[in-house]
Automatic annotation (TrEMBL):
Keyword set, alphabetical order: Cleavage on pair of basic residues, Disulfide bond, Extracellular matrix, Glycoprotein, Immunoglobulin domain, Secreted, Signal
The protein's name in its UniProt record: Cartilage intermediate layer protein 2
Gene3D superfamilies tied to this protein: Carboxypeptidase-like, regulatory domain, Immunoglobulins, Thrombospondin type-1 (TSP1) repeat
Sequence ranges assigned to domain Ig-like in this UniProt record: 220-304
Keyword Signal: yes
InterPro entries xrefs: CarboxyPept-like_regulatory (IPR008969), CILP-1/2_8th (IPR056257), CILP-1/2_b-sand_dom2 (IPR056256), CILP-1/2_C (IPR056258), CILP-1/2_dom (IPR056255), CILP1/CILP2 (IPR039675), Ig-like_dom (IPR007110), Ig-like_dom_sf (IPR036179)
Classification lineage: Eukaryota, Metazoa, Chordata, Craniata, Vertebrata
Subcellular localization, as worded in the UniProt entry: Secreted, Extracellular space, Extracellular matrix
Length: 1103
């Protein structure tokens, strides 16, 4: 906003009295109409632009304003500058202009202009500093905690030379001759710290003081990364990048397809704007941020530029087959599968002029535009189904990403209760009583760094980089934490040695040597008392410690890219003053590593000491190692050490690591079952790979593990980083496991010999990789993982270029590999089950959700899974079906939502007893969030079964919350499903999550365990049950009620009524209802929303 009065006030002599016109242009000299902005200007008021009047997603640009003035008397050109006044030192010079042929004051402005100038310095004068005799500047240089910093170089700001002073042991300095006028700015530099600046404060007429705080250098890290975009030719796009660190990065560089963009041409800073896009601008974009501490490179974003006629969302849906119930077949083909249609998971271009703000996305997605209802004629009934009729570009559903899990002790599995949770530096909450936690991942997060802090100080602070699914939904993660080692007492006035790695039967890997007088408080004050020192060492020679390791063993190399480390051990140092418990720091201490523990060539030379940055979860180099002077050893049999140095200050977690350059990726997929059907892959599975160096008996490196990585499967599996070797196949091996919601998945079998078609890898590469499942040699062992040789593929061998091992630079090929390419496989271990939804929904593709009154999941942002536990007394396992229909909502009453079948699982401790965890549709709001529906759920077990018990708490709850469903039929059970999440005491298990599969897995785990917060995959049939049925073997040739209902519901119900002595044609509901005596009672139930006794008179319309 620029008012005319303000312009005249600030630029009076440059603005004519009566301007003829006004023009506004952006700072890039573009007209408002060219950038699509609405502005206002008037010769009486001035210029203004309002953000609220701009198109969606835009705000006002910065503008220049210029005026057109009438011709009249004008000044001549300025004359030449005159000589500089004075004979030496500073002075001034003048120049003049004329207003020819005009009256006095006809030309607006001054006729004379002055300018400062400098002649040669006066003799004996140093003009680089302002010198004031008898004046003194005193100062201190400290850390944020107040610790003094000796050896810092002090200069005047903007004048790096000469140095004014060097701080002494107390961090102090004193400089004579610096003016104490309060306008002096001091700059301070010290190796390992970001430069600091302080302004002197005058204490009196001759003395000034200043305190400068220096912060430790922190490598830059990204908090905002460029995101992939789709645009049409001629549109605009903006890529955003932001980095933090100490100091904060100021320089940014943008790259297109790997080539640096010219800053002068594109005029970018941390953000890159591309206007009037053309096909040549499509491709990949990334940024780099640079500071004195280093460089960081962003992830790659892909820009797709479409021609105006190019279509990305075909209105005709793709084929998507769902399996029908066993008693349903298509009449024409006899197929048990039905095509319900599918919209491709693609991005549509944003609207013109949109998305020129960081953090705002105007992208649209190809999704369902219209559904149609079809009917499938089954054995005795009609099954409704809704199919995709048309696809179109709609607003993308914003993903909600969650990570859930438990934090437990690595040694005893006890939960870490009420531990504080930090997300980076921000406090986000606490773990629960069972160590459980839920974290919502902030948008645009690339690395989820989470810290769990035990307030009781019994466990090491766990800094974890947790995997998550950026497409949306939840991932379950079990976090292991190490118990702190019991503290030992040290005398601060003596030299102390603490061993690192005291595993039974093994020599220590190294030791820490702390000299006398090295301890001090955080403010720098020396400490001379007794020290309680706890040094907890994570020993990679023990495979069980891998799960408890912190971070993901990554660092940022000189090119700003993430690179892996291979550990020889990590340790946490906790030093506290005895009595007060106050945390202590140290000066320089020695970290000595036994050279005899290093057998691989080149590792001794490349070994470094690293500390963990708790904000980024990345390791940063503290020091390199050098070989110990041989003269220090007294006897030849003594060990030889590599020696490094570190100061134990704010960071307490250290690592003995070697950067590793021999890297690959391993392709893994997860499937619904062991049939490994390509269309039945499972997303959200956490796959973990632990590098084992090397295979047993390989003498080059005796450690058990050296690195671990985790990844989450997407629609095309997952690619996990690993070390590999091209020369020797078994130089590196890996142990791979997979889990979904706490459930361990099974890899393909390998005994007696791995079959290529089952494992997913062709010969002869499969033999070279040496695939072995954990139970290969002992069938009694668990089948929860496999072991392979990490043989780097030979690019000249056609058998090895199609996976499952990919070179490090071929990540894109690994991620985009077709399902027919080689890969390793996991499958879920589950009892037989069947699911049918009237409104189709792929739980692995959250974008496939469609808003409909009959949707099983009414809210795509929050998935609530409900299960009921059914106990069965009988000699075998039995299938139990839940029939789910609308119960109280006027739009869905009596209409089918879906079917669920689940087979009971035997209780190993109770012969003749099994139980089934059967899903039912939860009651609650439907998709429009206006009215709730209480689902009518009917459960019927297969076989000759009779209900003998109902959970008393559940029965009382249903009676207190009408309407009450009929329960007269002893062969089944009906209920109007509860709205409340009742819990295990009722035999009902409810879990809400952003991922439907994860919600169901957690609920099933609790149902198996019979608790509301536990988890088990071993069925406990006697606890937490809602219903109990007694089933018997039926006579040979006699079909069960379950099968009779599937084949002919009408006839089966007639037989039941005849056997029970009821009327012949009282109801056509496929699940018998209770007789309600009396007209008044009937009306009361109808007014309360009870389900009608007679659903339909047309057998074809029966659900």
């Amino acid at each position: 906003f620029e008012s005319l009065e303000a312009i005249r006030f600030y630029y009076g002599e440059r603005l004519c009295a009566h301007p003829l016109a006004l023009e506004a242009r952006t700072t890039e000299w573009e007209l408002p109409s060219d950038v699509g902005e609405r502005v206002h200007y008037s010769l009486e008021r001035g210029f203004w632009c309002l953000n609220r009047e701009q198109p969606e997603g835009k705000s006002c640009s910065n503008y220049h304003v210029r005026f057109k003035c009438p011709l009249g008397p004008s000044w001549s050109e300025w004359g030449a500058w005159g000589p500089c006044s004075g004979s030496c030192g500073p002075g001034r010079r003048l120049r003049r202009r004329r207003c020819p042929g005009a009256k006095k004051n006809a030309c607006v402005g001054r006729s004379v202009e002055a300018q400062k100038c400098v002649r040669a310095p006066c003799p004996g004068t140093d003009c680089s500093v302002c010198v004031c005799q008898d004046h003194v500047l005193v100062g201190t240089v400290v850390t944020p905690t107040g610790r003094p910093l000796p050896g810092a170089r002090v200069t005047l700001k903007g004048r790096p030379k000469p140095s004014l002073a060097i701080t002494d042991a107390r961090g102090s300095f004193r400089v004579a001759g610096i003016c104490s006028d309060g306008h002096t700015n001091v700059s301070v530099q010290l190796e390992g710290f970001a430069p600091g600046v302080g302004q002197a404060v005058a204490n009196n007429s001759t003395m000034a003081s200043v305190t400068v705080i220096l912060r430790t250098l922190e490598k830059p890290y990204l908090v905002k990364q460029p995101e992939s975009r789709v645009r049409e030719a001629g549109h605009h796009v903006m890529f955003c990048c932001k980095a933090l660190g100490t100091p904060v990065p100021k320089k940014y560089y943008w790259y297109h397809n790997g080539s640096l963009l010219d800053r002068k041409v594109y005029k970018y800073d941390s953000n890159l704007i591309l206007r009037n896009l053309g096909p040549g601008q499509a491709g990949t974009y990334h940024c780099k941020a640079n500071s004195d501490a280093g460089t960081i490179k962003s992830n790659t974003a892909v820009l797709t530029v479409l021609s105006p006629e190019q279509q990305v969302c075909d209105p005709r849906p793709l084929e998507h087959l769902i399996k029908l119930p066993d008693d349903c077949r298509q009449a024409a083909s006899g197929s048990a599968y039905y095509n319900v249609g599918l919209c491709p998971d693609t991005r549509c271009p944003g609207r013109p002029g949109s998305n020129l703000r960081c953090g705002e996305s105007s992208d649209r997605c190809c999704s369902v535009s219209r559904l149609e209802t079809r009917e499938i004629r089954c054995a005795g009934y009609v099954l409704p189904v809704k199919v995709v009729a048309k696809c179109g570009c709609e607003k993308c559903m914003p993903p909600k990403v969650l990570v859930r899990g438990r934090v437990v002790a690595a040694d005893t599995e006890e939960p870490l209760r009420f531990a504080q949770i930090l997300l980076g530096k921000e406090k986000t909450g606490f773990t629960g009583y069972q160590g459980d936690f839920t974290i919502e991942v902030p948008p645009a997060t690339e690395r989820l760094v989470v810290t769990f802090i035990d307030g009781r100080r019994e466990f090491v602070d766990a800094i974890k980089v947790l995997p998550f699914d950026p497409r949306g939904g939840g991932v379950y993660q079990e976090v292991k934490v190490m118990r702190k080692k019991e503290p030992i007492r040290l005398d601060a006035d003596k030299s102390n040695t603490i061993p690192l790695g005291t595993a039974e039967g093994m020599d220590p890997i190294g030791e820490i040597v702390i000299p006398s007088g090295a301890f001090y408080y955080a403010n720098g004050e020396p400490y001379n008392g007794t020290v309680q020192a706890s040094v907890t060492f994570l020993d990679p020679r023990d495979l069980a410690t891998a799960a408890a390791a912190s971070s993901d063993l990554s660092f940022v190399d000189d090119n700003g890219e993430l690179a892996p480390l291979r550990t020889y051990g990590m340790f946490l140092v906790d030093l506290r003053a005895e009595g007060s418990g106050e945390e202590l720091q140290t000066g320089r201490v020695e970290v000595r590593m036994d050279a005899g523990q290093i057998h691989m060539a080149g590792h001794a030379e490349e070994m470094k000491l690293w500390s963990l940055n708790p904000t980024t979860g990345l390791w940063e180099e503290e020091s390199s190692f050098h070989m110990e002077n041989a003269g220090r050893r007294v006897r030849r049999e003594e060990r030889t050490f590599l020696i490094g140095n570190v100061e134990i200050q704010e960071r307490r977690l250290f690592n003995l690591d070697v950067p590793e350059r021999r890297r690959c990726f391993v392709k893994v997929r997860a499937y619904i079952n062991e049939k490994f059907i390509p269309s039945e892959q499972v997303e959200g599975v956490v796959v973990t790979l632990v590098n084992l160096e090397p295979a047993p008996g390989y003498s080059a490196n005796p450690r058990a593990w050296g690195r671990f990585d985790s990844a989450v499967t997407g629609p095309n599996g997952a690619c996990l980083p690993a070390f590999c070797d091209a020369e020797r196949a078994d130089a590196y091996t890996a142990y791979v496991t997979a889990a979904l919601g706490g459930e361990e998945l099974e890899p393909a079998p390998s005994s007696p010999q791995p079959h290529p078609g089952t494992v997913g890898v062709t010969q002869p590469y499969l033999d070279k990789l040496g695939y072995r499942r954990t139970d290969h040699d002992d069938p009694a062992l668990k089948k929860n993982g496999f072991r392979i040789n990490l043989a780097k593929p030979n690019p000249n061998n056609l058998d090895e270029i199609q996976g499952p091992i990919y070179p490090w630079r071929s990540l894109r090929e690994c991620e985009d590999a077709p399902v027919t390419a080689n890969h390793f496989r996991f499958s879920r271990v589950e009892a037989d089950k069947y699911e049918y939804n009237v409104v189709p929904f792929r739980e692995s593709e959250l974008a496939s959700w469609t808003g409909d009154y009959l949707s099983w999941w009414p809210n795509p942002q929050e998935f609530r899974a409900c299960f009921i536990k059914v106990k069965i007394q009988g000699p075998q396992d039995y299938m139990v079906r839940s029939h789910n229909a609308g119960g109280s909502h006027p739009r869905t009453q009596g209409q089918l939502y879906g079917l669920r079948d689940a087979r009971s699982v035997k209780d190993m401790e109770h012969p003749g007893t099994s139980a089934a965890c059967v899903e039912f549709k939860c009651s609650g709001m439907l998709f429009d969030q206006r009215l709730p529906d209480r689902t009518l759920v009917t459960l019927v077990p297969q076989g000759s079964c009779r209900r003998i018990a109902v959970n008393s708490l559940l029965r009382e709850y249903l009676a207190r919350h009408p309407p009450v469903a009929p329960t007269d039929d002893p062969s089944g059970f009906s209920m109007i499903a509860p709205v409340d999440p009742l819990g295990h005491n009722y035999g009902i298990y409810t879990v809400t999550d952003q991922n439907p599969r994860l919600a169901k897995e957690i609920a099933i785990g609790r149902c198996f365990d019979g608790t509301s917060d536990g988890f088990s995959r071993e069925m406990k049939a006697d606890v937490g049950t809602a219903l109990t049925f007694q089933c018997q073997e039926r006579p040979a040739g006699q079909r069960s009620l379950f099968q009779r209902l599937l084949d002919s519901p009408r006839t089966a119900l007639e037989d039941i009524r005849r056997e029970m002595g009821g009327p012949g044609r009282r109801s056509l509901n496929p699940f018998p209802t209770r007789r309600i005596p009396g007209r008044r009672r009937r009306m009361e139930m109808l007014q309360a929303g009870a389900v009608n006794e007679t659903v339909t008179r047309n057998p074809e319309d029966a659900p």
